């Protein structure tokens, strides 16, 4: 290439050399940039990638997995089994209620069973019929003489 053609492709300015290859943006691109108010050059300095935390020296963000100790597992199982056995033995031996309290609890259970059997003996239909008979036997003193003020 001759020096004339080189000069035609680039123009010398005091600050820098502007190449003719860098063209002005097309009409669509110019409108897009004008609408958003930002140019592509402003987005060129955006840092891409994951965020970096202060105080972390390039370590991976994941936690390190601990190696499982088989012996410690066995020890924990033995301890748990021993604790369960102790609890069961304590439950059977520790009954610090007085004889009166024991008798009271037995009577409560007995009465509760009687109530359950009484309720189970009648059906809902039978209960409704009994209630209606009871209402029929009441005196008219309990009846509501006037329900509405308009009649």
From TrEMBL:
Pfam families: FAM32A
Listed Low complexity bias regions: 48-61
Compositional bias segments (type: Basic and acidic residues): 87-98
Cellular compartments per GO CC: nucleolus
Region feature (Disordered): 1-100
Compositionally biased tracts (Polar residues): 1-20
Family: Belongs to the FAM32 family.
Protein name: Protein FAM32A
Gene: fam32a
């Amino acid at each position: 290439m001759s020096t004339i053609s080189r000069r035609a492709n680039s123009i010398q300015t005091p600050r820098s050399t502007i190449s003719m290859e860098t063209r002005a943006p097309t009409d669509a691109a110019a409108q897009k940039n004008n609408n958003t108010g930002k140019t592509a050059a402003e987005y060129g300095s955006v840092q891409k990638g994951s965020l970096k935390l202060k105080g972390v020296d390039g370590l991976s963000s994941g936690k390190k997995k601990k190696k499982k100790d088989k012996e410690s597992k066995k020890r924990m199982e033995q301890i748990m089994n021993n604790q369960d056995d102790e609890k069961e033995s304590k439950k059977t031996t520790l009954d610090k209620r007085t004889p009166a309290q024991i008798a009271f609890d037995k009577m409560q259970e007995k009465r509760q069973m009687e109530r359950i059997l009484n309720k189970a003996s009648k059906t809902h239909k039978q209960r409704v019929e009994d209630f209606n008979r009871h209402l029929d036997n009441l005196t008219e003193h309990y009846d509501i003489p006037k329900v509405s003020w308009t009649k």
